[in-house]
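Kindly inspect this one:
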Amino acid sequence: MPAVRELLSEWATQGDIESRHEAEILLAHALGTERAWLFAHADYVPDTQAETRFQELMDARRHGQPIAYLLGQRGFWTLDLKVSRDVLIPRAETELLVELALERIPADVTFEVADLGTGSGAIALAIASERPVARILATDLSAAALEIARSNAADLAIDNVEFAQGDWCAALAGRRFDLIVSNPPYIAADDVHLAQGDLRFEPSSALASGADGLDAIRAIVEAAPMHLRPSAWLLFEHGYDQGERARAILEQHGFLCIETWRDIAGNDRISGGQRA
């Protein structure tokens, strides 16, 4: 039976495996331990069940399945979140949306926030964890996604988030908020990237939105003023090349103080404005 050292060496030499780092992550997962443990136990010989599980995980990775789905979890902000193929994999660039939201939420004042299209609950739960006095409504059209989000809230013992099913602002049921945030789908339906990499395995409804990728953003911006208190902010994520068009949509619907913020890579990533 091969030891940890041999298992990692075998897979690290495979040309279609992204890195030894991935093999280490998946072997640690198969063994039910931490990656750091492997370095101190290179001569450890896994049992047949663990070795088989590792081989299955690596085969799935070789066929392109995302690491997050294979592990069933993904780190976001300061949280470890369950993920499945029913939800978008949380991404580091979306943390900018959390940062911008937190700048607008007082730490010690009751503040009502809506997160539209919550998926795994990443944005809503990150905000809630930093602003325990705030009340967050997390919505999604997908019942399966909401089940994941509710489970994450329970696991993290975050109790200032409630959940509602519905399409964008339709799920808000006439309520008004001090802030609305969203990471909606924003990829054009015919974009070739949808057939590449991790995107092949993620829910298409969370990725693509019409011919130019902006259908969901248009729907949110059009309806949001009816659900925002005066001077309240709407903030949403979009593609790297959509900042100018996002600002135009906000202006068309009467928003003020319109701005686009860039992510750590220098790409347009978040746009928003205040309701008049």
Remarks:
- The two ends are 69 Å apart (CA to CA).
